[in-house]
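Sat 14:20. Reprocessing the chain from the morning session after the first attempt stalled halfway. Input below, unchanged.
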Amino acid sequence: MNNIVDKQKILLVEDDVNLGFLLVEYFESNGFDVKLYIDGQAGLKGFQQSSFDICIVDIMLPKLDGFSLVKEMKVLDSEIPIIILSARSMKEDKIKGFGFGVDDYISKPFDEEELLCRVKAVLNRRSPQSSIADKTSVDQKTLGAYEFNALKQELVLGNTTQRLTYKESKILKLLAQSKNNLLKREEIMIEVWGESDYFTGRSLDVFISKLRSYLKSDPNLCIKTIPTVGYILEESQNL
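Finished this time. Tokens:
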């Protein structure tokens, strides 16, 4: 029996070879399979010849610019998730990209970890398999003494039901998906707010504090803070 899990495939089109190889190495070290192309025509040919889970495309490309490439990709597969990279942060470029149906737009220079978080967030939103798994394993889930229903935004303890806001439910769902494992702050902020900065970080701290208060009735369940890194929803066994 084959227990090997297929890696998610990224098509990366970036004419800066040094940056391209750096991103390939970074994403492959995080469990992805990456194909790098250094011009738009080569990227389009690679897209036509293979299947990918997500595409990362630079705007300023030789032979075929990034916007034209995205347009061609969307003709071939209207559902393919695409993230645009650009050294330009002009409003017009962002509007044009989103008009073509791209899922995210990140300006250079950027942090590799932020790009990774954005890729994961897009894949989580767009993957049908993820949606099915969420409904069966996370949208209704036992957390210690609680029953958590993310779809209804409810946290139930005995006969008491705590109604959660959308963001509270979304954050608890992400923590539940990574239960007993580290969930990075950056990943939560990108998934819930769509950006990561000082202000969203402060907002996240407030939401974590609220969730802790909702879970305090079960001493075997806690949200542990790993300073400056993230959180772990720990569930210990009741011996």
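The chain has nine helices and twelve strands.
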